[in-house]
Amino acid sequence: MAEDKVKKQIPLRLSAKLYNDIAAWAEDDFRSLNGQIEYLLSECVRQRKKNGKYVPDDLDLPPDFDL
Length: 67
Hints:
Layout: H1 16-28, H2 33-51
C-alpha cells in the first residue's frame, strides 16, 4: 500500500470547547469529527507548503458568494 494511504493513529487531547466547535463544524460540512480534523490539518499543511504560512490571510473573512 502506498505510504500516503496508510493511516496512523495518534492520541489527541482537545478542550471541551474546541471539541464542540470542531464537531459542529464537521456536522456543517457533513464530515465525521475525525474526518474534519484530518481535513483541517491537510489544508494547513497544503497552505504552508504553498506560501510558507500556516493559514491563509483571509481565513476569518466571510465567504464572498455571488448568489
